[in-house]
Amino acid sequence: MNQTNKADTIAMLRTQHPDWTLAIIGAEVGVTHEYVRQVLSARGLRTKAVRAPFVGSRRPKEKKPPIPTVTWSNSGEIALGKGDIGTITELLVCADLVRMGHDIYRAVNHSSPADLIVFANGRAYRVEVKSAQMKGNCVASGIGAVEKYDILARVLPDGKIFYLPALPICKIKTRSND
Description:
Among the domains are: 3-42; 82-164, 3-Layer(aba) Sandwich (Trna Endonuclease, Chain: A, domain 1), CATH 3.40.1350. It is 28% helix and 19% strand. It has helices at residues 3-16, 22-29, 33-42, 82-99, and strands at 103-106, 116-120, 123-131, 133-135, 138-140, 151-155, 161-164. The strands form 2 sheets. Strands 1-2-3-6-7 form a 5-stranded mixed sheet, covered by helices on one side. A hairpin with a 5-residue loop joins strand 6 (151-155) and strand 7 (161-164). Helix 2 (22-29) crosses helix 3 (33-42).
């Protein structure tokens, strides 16, 4: 087989077997893999083999689709600092608790032992409010100093609120404007 026939055979083998390596093509034709690379480069054909579909015991890494998440990050329109996010979460919890019929008192300064005080069924509960994220099926947030509160309110970026332990039930009461 002359050089022209070998070059044509190399080109034909590459187009028929894109998953073959240069060494396999070279062994088939009887030339080195470097000669195969030079011929393929000169003809503008691929020098790298296309990966064959999975065969054997080693599984390729599967790309998992990204999980859509909502975060407390800035949308680019308004610069939100940590204090802003804290204020938003506290106000969301206040609105939720008032909607449930509880009386709420909010701390004036940030060094208070609790973010909120909620009165339910004749008892005062200290509430710590934390912004949270979903991690898989779990709600993840800091817990703060556990001895400083009775109820932990975790607020997701979409506004959902989780209370730990659950809040005592309070009947909705109507208020008069006396």
